[in-house]
Amino acid sequence: MNNQKQQKPTLTGQRFKTRKRDEKERFDPTQFQESIVQGLNQTGTDLEAVAKFLDASGAKLDYRRYAETLFDILVAGGMLAPGGTLSDDMTRTEYCLFTAQEDLETMQAYAQVFNKLIRRYKYLEKGFEEEIKKLLLFLKGFTESERNKLAMLTGILLANGSISASILSSLFNENLVKEGVSAAFAVKLFKSWINEKDINSVAGSLRKVGMDNRLMELFPANKRSCEHFSKYFTDAGLKELSDFARNQQSIGARKELQKELQEQMSRGDPLKEIIAFTREEMKKANLSEQAMISIIWTSVMSSVEWNKKEELVTEQAIKHLKQYSPLLKAFTSQGLSELSLLLKIQEYCYDNIHFMKAFQKIVVLLYKADVLSEEAILKWYTEAHLAKGKSVFLEQMKKFVEWLKNAEEESESEEEEAD
């Protein structure tokens, strides 16, 4: 008997294991498009039914892969070719944003469809924002009515936070700007945005993404002025947007002026030159004396490196302010300007803790230098001071205010005797 085990026959050749995730599917939106179009044709103009259909279809169709196709169909009825025209060889539907009624109520209902879809399928959020950016670049390929609907929808979506205001950068496209398409679109967009919220909410969203200072770019370079912007949007019924842009420009001009003054002081430019420059800039920017004295104070206090020791900083501040008191005096010819300066000093001493004990000494110095009058100081003391550090500063000023009041009373009695 043969004790050797018989060898089992083996299969020759190699076996390859193919993982599903390694199989790359070909990008083919045809089937996807047909499914969406068919569903939209069945739901028709019933947007509640559209929302339900989209919600259910996400479980069966690849929204992640064909997000752009999905949004193109919902907006334009079919896939869009570069430039904004509908692709000829694809199925399309008549039930989409562009064929809907051109009114705010319908656009609000469409915004709800998009909101529900993105809330349900969170991964579509980024793709949707990219879609809006793309659609804005395609504006020239759309009809006026289609642009109006898209503008209203975009304004509503911006108001409810579905998209970021950074999408507005598409409107700065040179070709759109040159032909006036951007500005006209912006009118409709901002009207629907402000209608949903208010100008403060709009301003906050614009600031968040650095768009607050770029609105002038809606116009060609030769029309990029505050005057043109203001007239265009005021005439279009958006005065609050005009005022916001004017205010932004004014803030920008003030920051630039403050920076320039600070540099002139740091360089040690002659005071006469600084005063002349400041007067000219004040006139150019149409600034009030109250606004100007606030800018000057900030520039004066920012042009030097302050000592960190409380006992030394007061002495340093007095010496520094004595040098610049003629500049401060030149822009405090009105009582309101003096009061504005006093409030800026109070605010500065409160915000910079090393200056807390210096407040009274600074005020006395500026009184002696004829920058601040006794009327302004007394008004500040009795009624016009800020809440910041109030008890500390009023206590510091108590003796000096008593002295001022006594001096005033003596002066009045001397006048009476003379009469």
From TrEMBL:
Classification via Pfam families: HEAT_5MP1_2, W2
Location of the region described as Disordered in the Swiss-Prot/TrEMBL record: 1-28
CDD domains (alphabetical): W2_eIF5C_like (cd11560)
GO biological-process terms attached to the record: regulation of translational initiation
Keywords annotated in UniProt: Activator, Transcription, Transcription regulation, Translation regulation
SMART domains, A to Z: eIF5C
Domain W2: 247-414
Gene Ontology CC annotations of this record: cytoplasm; membrane
Family: Belongs to the BZW family.
Name recorded for this polypeptide: Basic leucine zipper and W2 domains 1a
Organism expressing this protein natively: Neolamprologus brichardi (Fairy cichlid)
